[in-house]
Design brief:
Elements (H helix, E strand, L loop, with lengths): L23 H14 L3 H20 L2
Helix pairs in contact: 1-2
């Protein structure tokens, strides 16, 4: 049996790496928010930023 992380389907893989500069306090706040949601920082940040971006675009379209 092969050990390690399971293979991710090519169409499900995240291909682009984005860098976000924050202060230590900002990162700590975001880490706490992610933990409260039961998510990793990356998953939480991706979901939160995507939702906010969509909200802004929806508002602009009105």
């Amino acid at each position: 049996m092969k050990m390690g992380r399971p293979t991710i389907q090519p169409d499900k893989r995240k291909q682009v790496i984005s860098t976000l500069r924050t202060s230590g306090d900002e990162r700590e706040t975001m880490d706490k928010a992610a933990a409260l949601k039961g998510s990793s920082f990356s998953s939480w940040a991706r979901e939160t930023l995507s939702q906010e971006a969509q909200r802004i675009l929806d508002q602009a379209a009105r």
